[in-house]
Amino acid sequence: MIFFVIQALYFFLPAYAANVAPVVSGTLFSYPIDAFCSFRGVRVFGENKTWGGLLGGVLLGTLVFFIQQVLYVIPFFHDLSLFDYSIMPTTLGFFMAFGALLGDLVKSFVKRRLGRTPGSSWFPFDQIDYVLGAFVFIIPFYMPSAALFLILLLLAPVFHYAANYLAFTLGLKKVWW
Hints:
Blueprint: H1 2-11, H2 13-20, H3 22-25, E1 38-39, E2 42-43, H4 51-71, H5 75-80, H6 91-113, H7 125-138, H8 146-169
Antiparallel strand pairs: 1-2
Helix pairs in contact: 2-4, 2-6, 4-6, 6-7, 7-8
């Protein structure tokens, strides 16, 4: 069971990378994705969803997947893998990363509609949005098991809070949640 959890974490590295990259890359090109537009009087996504964050996250997630493909020939990484990376297209990493970030955008859209401010905590949706988004986008390439989905869904809050606390400690985020 523990080895399967480690395999699940390794499998999901592109989505994890995509999810944390915007904290840094979003400041490099900080133009908002919603271009300051509103829907029913409220910003579509808010200030924190930027083109730099989206592009940086997708690029980093895709790069992580590509590295996994390269490492697949090494027996340790071959055994760690849930599928054959040598036959999977790199676009799987792209879609996993893009899906993770799109899941976050959808959640932000809903948060704005519910009157929640950008950066405010919304448990458990802040923690699982990227997992749901990534899974929706990878299904055309790879059908994950229910056990894999459940493990990643349950671990998402742990990684969310750990990553946010680290970003807060490094001065990259204003709040730790």
